[in-house]
Request: fold
Amino acid sequence: MNSQFNKDEKLEKVVRFSISLPEELLQIMDKQFIDKGYASRSEFIRDLIRSKIIQEKWGDPEEQVLAVLSIVYNHHTSDLSEKMMQIQHMNIVNILCNLHIHISHEDCLEVIVLKGKTKEIQKINIEISGLRGIKVAEITKIIIPEV
Ligand code: NI
Reply:
């Protein structure tokens, strides 16, 4: 479930409206929301709409966004740590903070919190994720909701 919009919804004005759907689509939706543990159709549809808003905003290169880039890599891979460090120093204005955890004898988890225009964040993501020796690179896209 999307946890980016956890403010108390009871404080918000809620509007009811009806939606027309093909029966088959409704059945698929009902199966999905039950399987995923949503409490109601409304909760499921709210989450879908919010995901779509995030997707749309990330499609705009000028949109101001936040992101968390999580990377797992083997620190024995030659030059990888240095290259990652260099990319971050080159983009210092977009790096809010950086957490490094030694998760095993050879592997490290690095969590980088990024802020800036989507085009800047995507560029840094591609630069770091594309480095040779990166085992896992996951970006979490965050938009502060206006509603
Ligand atoms: Ni480490």
The chain has a mean pLDDT of 88. Residues 2 and 47 are 6 Å apart (CA to CA).
